[in-house]
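Example record

One chain of 236 residues, shown exactly as stored in the release files.
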Amino acid sequence: MTRTSRSPVNLLGRNVSAHIPALEATKGMIVMRERDDAVWNAALPFLRTRDNDAHTLVSYGIARALCEMIPDADPDVVLPAIILHDTGWSTVDEVVAFNAIAPDRDGSLHHIVIQHEKEGARIAREVLEPLGHSPEVIDEVVAIIDGHDTRLTAISLNDSVVKDADKVWRVSPHGIDVAVPRFGLTREESAILNASRAVDDLFNPEAKAMSRAFLSWECMTESPQWTQTTPREFDQ
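Predicted structure tokens for this chain:
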């Protein structure tokens, strides 16, 4: 948590910051584990395309929350896998990548989606081995990444959590934001498109609940009724 600047407005008129609980004592707050930060830093050069760095970071937060709600999932597999899952797009031209995942795709670029999975699996192994991850963990992460988009079934619980975190991102505010300029959509069209690609394809009930929560926020803040609310103007 790095956004530490205090609001210039205080309607209460007194400082209550001493009553804010310590982060460690607060359930629901998500931070990146130190061991995952090492993976993130090694993966970052491969994520500087298609908004993949931000997509990966949001997906990591979703995956970490899912791991806390699904005790049998192994965060030591799920979290490095979600950080590394889209590194393979770094080997694909960005315009080609957009066409490969576009709403009107016809399957002629399906091999490009497979390429990003294969290359991502290769990069994952190259990243994780020097960081000291066990061969068993590396093999499982590689297997999850190799097929994370094109494989419609889950090969394990860990795989299902990675797949769900990746898809739940689509209905997050960031996921909906990204699709608007990428495909020239209205925000409503983006939300509908991303929901069609996420909600019904999730494996775990915890992920389905999370996607519903994201969508409920989106639907209400974009509803005609929202325009009837009165924004509060604050003196700066």
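Notes: The radius of gyration is 19 Å.
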